[in-house]
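::Amino acid chain::
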Amino acid sequence: MKKITTIFLSLFGLGIFSVYSQDNNYGQINGNFQSDIQYYIEDEKINASAVEEKLLANSWANFTYSLGNFSAGFRYEGYMNSLLGYPNTGGINDGVGIPYRWAMFTNDNLEISVGNFYEQFGNGLVLRSYEEKMLGIDNALDGFKIKYSPVSGIYMKGLIGKQRYYWEMGPGVIRGFDTEIQFNELIQSFSESSLRFSLGGSFVSKFQKEDNPIYVLPSNVGAGAGRIDIKFKGLNLLSEYAYKINDPSADNNFIYKPGQAFLINATYSQKGLGIVLGTKWVDNMSFRSDRNASLTDLNINLLPEITRNHIYTLPAFYPYASQPNGEWGAKAEIMYKIKKGSKIGGKYGTTISLNYSRAHEIERTQINDTIPISASGTLGYNTKFFSIGDELYFQDFNIEISRKWNKKIYTNISYVNLFYNYNILRGVGGHDNVLANIAIADMTYKFTDVVALKTEFQGMFTKQDEGNWGLGLLELTIPSWFFTVFDNWNYGNPDPEKRPHYFSFGFGYVHGGSRIQLTYGKQRAGVMCIGGVCRNVPASNGVSLSISSTF
């Protein structure tokens, strides 16, 4: 990989020199930089472990050069060593180098990319390659990608490559093709129609050599998907179905059952009203370029979350993690804005949001009386399409009321009631399910147009897990500066010796595209989820510094 990077950068430099010498034009260079650094302090009371290096850092910088139809770039990364909680088994993520480099040429209807790239087909049921720094995920593809539009309204993509696996590449080769037809663009007589209609289809396959001493495994595994998107005025209906042939892997205990996934979302919006309805059904849809991989490594696809992704701290203690081996979920959300100037809505109006989501296991039955469900080397189990099992994985009901009272005061009040199947969603045993009620009061007071104080109070009330929690936050914002004080107290822990305060305080400076933040504080152990994908976050105590800039 180092040889490839050296060759690429040499060609990149020669290309810039050649373009400049011919056209006397440098083109444009831009990019961004970020570094997150933490000094760790051992804290036995919160089970924060000592770090041998004392100080750890995650840093990266992106550089992009563009001129006319040509663009190229690279990302320099340094993990010295990786911050605690990021995927790094055996130090696999520690190091410094250039794992991401690319070049792209475009014209009116053709785009060609070489090197590393990200891509998504449809909703991601069969392919989503992406980066999420907060989770430590980067499954970028390394290879070739072509996008082509033969006529207006028909869009095609083709790709082949291997996935990034920290500083190396995964063993599997991924091949994919996607086509989408936008009928309102394709058929001129429909171009001004209020009805917007499109169809799409994808096919993705992976190749990995068969190397199992026990089972005969397929070297080539294919997955296909079809989707439809209909829009009419304020109504939008989006649906996708995916099917994957048998793909025995460590995720499914090496069973030979094909996989399926179905997703449908309906939204309606008009002035002052928004409605969202959705459902998802998944059966055996783990899809990786390495059949032996686990956790967040080498996923080819992504199963979109069906539950709300809470931004407040206490509701985020118990997030839902998508279950690729099998899940059914549904959601409903209504947003209504009470008119401005009304008695209830006030001068600026009041927004009320109601959200409900629920996730279950799927129904599974034995293939016959002698084979247990999900026994290795078998077809695994029987299930009916869109079956719903009895076991509840997750349930969340919440209501949020936000209002601007006058030019100085804004409030957001929330209530959350949730059920959390701890054993299933954390992959453990012997733990009680969590039932919790959470109340949140968030208020911002503006002293002037550029000076504001944000106050936040949260309370979680539960008899399970670690018991009740209380949280308070103050954040003062003035031109270019912000100051934060935060305390999260586990006052209701059943063990009186385990009721710590997770406090922190810090400040930051923002100027143009640059931001610097320095914080001292304690971090509770838990789980962080984004889009249904999660990572464990260990307890920590220490000083952290974050620096970012764009140019």
